[in-house]
Amino acid sequence: MHENKWIPTVCYQCKAECAILARVEDGVVREVKGNPRARGKMCVKGMAGITTLYSQERLKKPLLRVGERGEGKFKEIGWDEAMGIMEKKLRELMKRGEGHKFTYSMFPHSTTDPKWRFVNAVGGFISTGLPHCDSAKIMAHLHTFGCFPNHHIAPMYYTVPRGGIMILSGRHPFGCLDDACVPKHILDAKERGAKLIVIDPIFRTEASKADWWIPIKPGGDAALFLGMASHMLKKGIHNKAFCDKWVREGDMEGLAAFLKDKTPEAMSTICEVPAKDIIKLAEMCAKAPSVSIDAFKSIMYGNAMDWGHAWSIFLVITGNLDNPGGQPLPEIAPMAPVKPAPPAPNLKELGYHRTGPNRDKFNHYNFILEPTWYAAQAVKEGNLKVFFASECNPALSEMGSGEWRKAMTMKDKKGDYLLELFVVTEILPSETMKWADLVLPDQTNFERWELLYMPWWYNFGHTAAVCQPVVKPIGESRHANRVMIELGKRMFPEFFAFKDDVEYYDIELSGVGMSMQKMLDGGALWSPGTVGFRKYEDAGKFNTGSGKIELEWRMYADIGQQWPSPELPLEFRRDADTYPFILVNFRTIFLNNTGAWSQNNAQLRDSVSGLDANPLLLNPIDAARLGIANGDTVTVESSTGKVRIPVLFTEKIKPGCAGLIHGFGQTMGKVASRGKWISDNELIADAGSHLDEQDLRGGEAHVSTRVRIVK
Amino acid sequence: MKQLSIMVDLDRCIGCKTCIVACRNHYGLVDHEKSMPGTMSHYLRVESQCTGSYPNLKEDYWVVMCQHCKKPPCIKACEAGAIHKDVQTGIVLIDKNTCVGAKKCIEKCPYEVIQFDAARTYAHKCSLCYDRVIHGQEPVCVEVCLADALSFGEREILLMHADAAGKKVVKKMSTQSILYVKSPG
Predict the structure, then answer these.
(1) Residue A686: pLDDT band with limits 50, 70, 90
(2) What's the average model confidence in pLDDT over A624-652?
(3) Domain count across chain B
(4) pLDDT > 50? residue A350
(5) Residues of chain B neighbouring A33 (CB-CB closer than 8 A)
């Protein structure tokens, strides 16, 4: 094992997977920092990763449930027994012809994650949390100009020119989840004369650094951008040359007709941004050499597809595609396939996707993966029988997580659980493991091999990085990838003929002329060093059906969604008298959402270096109206949930909104269970059983929630 | 005057706390296995101030570490003579071998930055990474700062850099050796 030196590897305290260096001394990780070859930054969560590695609460042996689900009672078992339990149940499922009733909730670290291969071999579906959070952005950009940027692919702030405009609309990049170098890049761009515009109902750190903070009614982003687009077309200040060259014939005329009544004045009544400010921002953007837009929380509301569509249209009419300071059109690294590969089952025919009342209509928007938050409904309906989970915490992180927990414990007439087997891999005790039948001790990034190349795009184009073990594993922990490869070798030897995970990555890397050894010799990083700009100029086309930019989504004409509606999400437009406040849930850099490994990290829950409290944030104007004093404990109630929580007054939130940080509420783990803080998902409705209009207008995540507050 | 310093740029500090944890890791201040929140020593902390009322708000963030005072009250308070201001660098250092654990320095420190190791009965604090800077390295907090808000060097040179960048010294915060600067307005 390496000693007394800085070893290049990759962080995994969040999904951004930043390249880091780890200093190992006497076989112990002492320090970590950003890798200077990859812009050299690492955030507080990453720095605290050593505490996760060495926490006394690390799970060290496989655990088998001995009580009922939810009781959290387990006994230690050996790995052979654990593997046997999984193999037996999956073989039984496949024999019944129900392989598609198996799902694995994970965050794939690459498009060919070995766990994904295993799931395909069984005939099941992978399900995820993260890519779904902004699936509407992904789908909107795919539909309009044919590219696939997820929320880890922020605008390239290091390319923003002097005078360029950086718009953050419901996005907190200083909280990371992007590469850790993003905050520095935004501040650097500002210093060289770019403007930072923050559109947000909450005044966060980003707003404090902004040239202009524009408080907005949550969900009003589509209206705001349509108002700007309307003004630009009316005044003729859009990028006409770009549109003439690249937009599909007839679409600009269609857009002009659609936008005619979406005036700044009309849109102002929806988004609550003054019309003069909509005009001012539109004219700033029209004059600027570049405009980038980044959004995250706003793209999780019930009108997410409309917002994604409006956002895409705005980028097009300002000519900000694949240009310095604009919207990147990323490519995926051309890794070599590991053959033979099991075919993926037909998601549309067999998937449990979208079980809401408008299922048939919503099929228009089918995403490429299953969202984890439909699992509860799928279990209730008998469409999900075996559930594996890694690097996710659905008992807390799923919208309407109470329904998820309920589904885990539902039984048939014979007294058997509807969900026949639930397996979770985990580093530290998690809320989710309370409901698991089998808990497998996973490894941290300091103990495992992994090849990463998806979120890596921010750094110099399609890039790869190697996560390598720098210390010996704790206990009998095994990385989930290795567990699934071993299970794959038992069950599907034809698809798992490679020696191990390292050889698997070797084969993939041959696609870019690399191998694991060459990667390690070269500092564990590979990149062509450029992303390229205006790649459509070289190709002579966009990656759409027509080869042109498609502003009108003609395939949705039958459901009236060919142009984006400016209306707020349905959840914000109804029951305003009963539930007068809009819940604004957001993230912080000090805590990695509901991930058990950061919730249970002492440094991240320490009030000096992290966050140890999650009160409800209210503007004093609202509090006075309700007769509430600062610090009072109040009841917060939505149409589906009710909690008791202390209030903290702040001027930093728009009146009419109630703020709550996402990432509290765990009852497992000595650190994570501190305090009586709650998870925002206790108030947010379950996706499967509470969908209506957002089926048609929304993305796959939908957090739009109204609440009432009672002393 | 010989005085090494850190300059904190309020235009860039985002209060992310990365420096706090990096510093703890470097100096081994945390028992990763057993430490619980609220019990861990720290050589830096983040402070912030929000002014105005909705929607006209301004907020600054900054870090507070040992200010390496010009006339350190901790030195005067320490009857054991365990604290001195290094002549070559202006860094205020505690000799933990001489420290008897009387905690007088902690009582007298106006910045509340001195920590106490109860198990080994000595006071400890930010040394401006003395052992690094004398070998040409930057302090850990400066090296890892996520936003490049911290810079290290001779105090007078840092002042010159701030002036060249059009930044003003926040005088009421910069009365000792650590500098706090921001753009006017």
Answers:
(1) confident
(2) 96
(3) 1
(4) yes
(5) 22, 143-144
Cα–Cα distance, B143 to A296 (Å, whole number) = 30
A466 neighbors A520 (Cβ within 8 angstroms):
yes
Judge: B57–A652 Cβ closer than 8 Å, yes or no.
Answer: yes
Nearest to A31 among B20, B26, B52 (CB): B26
More confident residue, A559 or A316: A316
Taking an 8 Å cut-off on Cβ atoms, the answer to whether A609 and B28 are in contact is no
Window A:607-666, CB contacts with B under 8 Å: 607-610, 612, 619, 621, 651-655
Quote the minimal CA–CA distance from A459 to chain B in Å. Answer: 16
For chain A, how long is the longest CA-to-CA vector?
71
Domain map (residue ranges) of chain A: 146-330+533-559, 570-710
**How do residues A364-395 score in pLDDT, each as one tens digit?**
666 666 666 678 888 988 989 999 999 888 88
Instruction: Sort residue B28 into left (φ over 0), alpha (ψ -120 to 50) or beta.
Output: left
CATH class entry, domain A570-710: mainly beta
Domain span at residue B48 reads: 4-182
For the cut 50, the answer to whether the pLDDT of residue A2 exceeds it is no
Report the percentage of chain A scoring pLDDT > 70. 91
**Residue A19, SS3 per DSSP:** strand
In the CATH hierarchy, which fold is given to the domain comprising A146-330+533-559?
Answer: Dimethylsulfoxide Reductase; domain 2 (3.40.228)
- With an 8 Å Cβ cutoff, the interface of chain B facing chain A consists of 11-12, 14-18, 20-22, 24-26, 28, 30, 32-38, 40, 42, 45, 50, 52-55, 57-61, 143-144, 146-148
The residue behind tokens 């795919």 is: A142
In chain B, the residue whose alpha carbon lies closest to the alpha carbon of A603 is B37
Query: What is the helix (H) or strand (E) element at residue B59, kind and residue range?
Result: strand B56-64
> Are the C-beta atoms of A66 and A438 separated by less than 8 Å?
no
Pick A155 or A239 by higher pLDDT. Answer: A239
Rounded to the nearest angstrom, the gap between the alpha carbon of residue A589 and the centroid of all alpha carbons in its chain is 15
In order, the DSSP letters of A455-516 are GGGGTTSS-EEEE---SPPSTT---HHHHHHHHHHHH-TTT--SSSHHHHHHHHHGGGT--H
Q: Which residue of A has its CA nearest to B15?
A: A205
Cis peptide before A215 (omega within 30 of 0): no
CATH of the domain at B14: 3.30.70.20
